Every structure is written in structure tokens, then in C-alpha cells.
Amino acid sequence: MKTMKRKLAAGLLSFALLAVLAIPLRASAQGVLLKDIANVQGVTANQLIGYGVVVGLNQTGDSTSVLFTSKTIQNILQTFGLSTNSTDVRTRDVAAVIVTAKLPPFAHSGDNADVLVSALGDSTTLQGGTLLLTELRGPNNLVYATAQGPISVGGFSADTGTGNSIAKNFVTAGRVPGGAVIARDMVTNLQQDPSGFSYVLSTPDYKTAAHTVAALNHRFGSGTAHALDAATVRVNLPGKYTNDPVSFLADAGDLSIDADQLAKVVINERTGTIVMGGDIRLAPVAIAHGNLSITIGTTNQAVPAGPFTNAPTVTQTNTTVKTSESGQKLIYINGGSSLTQVVRALNTIGVSPRDLIAIVQSLRESGSLQADIDII
Asked: Which of 320, 319, 302, 298 is nearest to 311 (CA)?
């Protein structure tokens, strides 16, 4: 009886240990949804552009020196049966603009889209203006939408006429919310190829593509997907989803994919921002970094004339230039095999972010920093 109790207790203890050990293994498995890292090839927004005019401006439109604006006004008036010439058109209430918009991937005729209106001439502000009917064309020169409506600039500009003015944000560009009316239906690859489609990974990576193929084949059966390259995964619709790619995308979008992280450092030199991500490694290295400062000082000194002359006192300008260089010492960094260790190692240098940008670039050139650098 005691032996049975001991065996039962040992079994329960082993089961408890396995349960405890299983928790961290599940927690450490981090995955992302397929719909968050990939999109369907060919299903994307399309850019449209058009030329138009904005009317109703309060003497803030294009001047008469902008000849194409005057010519546009003549053409518009001619469509209404009014014949004019360049000397008749002298209004500052009109501005020539470029109109742009993005056509959604599944747009249908009659849908609305926002448009962006930007001044083309020397207009000072588009505040209070109204965009006249404008055709929006695609790269194939076909008209896909028409736009019209009041402009919202998201700022203001005021001038007292005495040389004093105040402005907030940019007032020579604005939006017309829902101002575009789509005239053509968009046809995507999903409608043209009923046998299947291709996923395109937002970040090309061979390991992520292989994991995506494995997850799709495990869920929908062998042969469902195969990788064409590091960014493209071809999907052949299973028999259950024949001619029904929408249902397949809905079911496949929630699959958890073990996406591999690229070792990359993104640097913005304009703002002094550094962002590191992925499996970054830093080999042991020694760094010497010095800050060079140049100070230029100017002093004015009055030099009186001699005692036997009536010449006025002369002001003499003296300029001094001083240079100093600090931080000239050699620092040894042990390196690190994880992002946390790399950050801790770089923090030992104790320099500003802008100096760190130069150091990171030098580390990459020397081969110590094992990551790609993207400068934006």
C-alpha cells in the first residue's frame, strides 16, 4: 500500500513538474498574425492626380503673373459661353492647384475618397476656397474619379497689411474629405485568378517565408502553399475554397506565424533618432571618440585718436577663435549577443545620440556591429 502511494505521489510530482516546465515554453513562443505581416499581391491602393482650380479665395489666390491660372479661368468661362482674354482675367480669388488621391483597392463606382489639394502658383493661402470639378486620372491616363468641394487647410493665416502677420501650419495645402467620387470599379487579382493568389511579405525574409508555407500547409493541407522567393508565397486554393478566396483569406489571416526579426538599425540624422531591432550582435571592440568644439568670439574696442589730432575715436573689432576637444580616451566594450546587452554596452560610452550615430556607423564599417543600417 505504501509503495502504491509513493508511486502515485511520484507520478503526480512528475506531472506537476512537466506542467510547470510547459508554461514558459508556451509563453516564449511569440508569433504574429499572417494578415499583419503579409498582403495579397496586386491588392493595393492606386494613386490618382489631376489639375484644378480653387475659387472663393479672399484676395489670396494666384497673381496675374501666373499665366496658366489666367488661361485656366478663360477656358472655364468659355465652357459657359463667355469669351474673355488675358486682360479681362485679373482676379486674385482663384488659385491653380494639383489634386491627388488614393483609390482604395476594392473601390466601386459611387464610393467616396479624400483628396489632397496643393497650390501650384503663388497663392498665399487656400483657406476658405472651394475646389471646382476636377478629373482625377491614373498612370494609364484614364479618369477614375472626379473631385469637388470646400477645402479644409487645418490652419490659418492672417495679415494686417502693415507688415505684421500670423500663421499656423501650412495653408497652401488642404484636404477635401470625401470630395472624390469614384467613377470606375477596381479589379484585383483575386477576381482575375480564381485558382489562387500570392502573399507578399511586408519584410522579405527566407525564414519567415518558410514558416508561412509550413503554417498554411499544416492548416489547409500539403501543397496549399509554396515560397517563390523571400517575399512571395504562392497559394493554391484547396477544393473547399474553390472560387472563394475571401473565405480562405478570412481563415488564413488568423494563423500565427513565427516571423524572424532582421538585425537592423534605423538612423534619422535630422532628428538624431536611433532605433534598433532584431537579433543584433556586437563583437568586442575598443572605441576612442572625441568631441571637437569651435568657439568664435567678437569684441569691440574703442581706440582713441592721437593727442595731436582731431580725428574721431575709431571702433576696432577683435575676433578670437578657440578650439577644444574633449573625451579623448579609449573605451573597451565587451560586446553583446542580445539587444539588451548591445544597448547596455553602447551606454557605457556616455555620448549624445548624435555622436552615437557616428559611432554606430563606424562600428558597422569595422564589422563589430552585425546589423544592417538604414539611414532615413
From this structure: 302
- How far is CA 258 from each of CA 28, 122, 150, 186, 210, rounded to the nearest angstrom? 11, 53, 48, 33, 10
Evaluate whether 212 touches 202 at the Cβ level (below 8 Å). Answer: no
Rounded-to-integer distance, Cα 130 and Cα 127, Å: 9
Whether residue 293 has pLDDT greater than 70: no
DSSP 226-257: EESSSSEEEEEPPGGGTT-HHHHHHHHTT-EE
- Mean pLDDT over each residue of the chain, to the nearest integer: 79
Angle between helices 339-347 and 353-366 (to 10 degrees): 120
Name the more confident of 252 and 264: 252
- Three-class SS state of 13: helix
Q: How many CB atoms lie within 10 A of CB 105?
A: 15
Residue showing cell 485679373: 90
Average pLDDT over every residue of 233-254: 90
Residue 8 pLDDT exceeds 70: no
Convert the pLDDT of each residue in 162-218 to its tens digit. 556 666 667 899 999 999 999 988 877 777 777 889 999 988 889 999 999 999 999
Q: What is the pTM of this model?
A: 0.64
> Quick one: pLDDT band at residue 279, thresholds 50, 70, 90?
confident
Cβ atoms of residues 34 and 215 within 8 Å: yes
Radius of gyration of the chain (CA): 34
Q: Are 349 and 331 in contact (CB under 8 A)?
A: yes
> Domain ranges in the chain?
46-182, 193-257, 264-298+316-375
* CA angle (206 as vertex; 231, 40 as ends), nearest 5: 25
Average pLDDT score over residue span 301-324:
66
Tell me, letter by letter, the H, E, C secondary structure of 72-84: HHHHHHHHCCCCC
The DSSP string of 176-222 is EEEEEEE-S----HHHH-TTEEEEEESS--HHHHHHHHHHHHHHH-T
Helix (H, G, I), strand (E, B) or coil at 275: strand
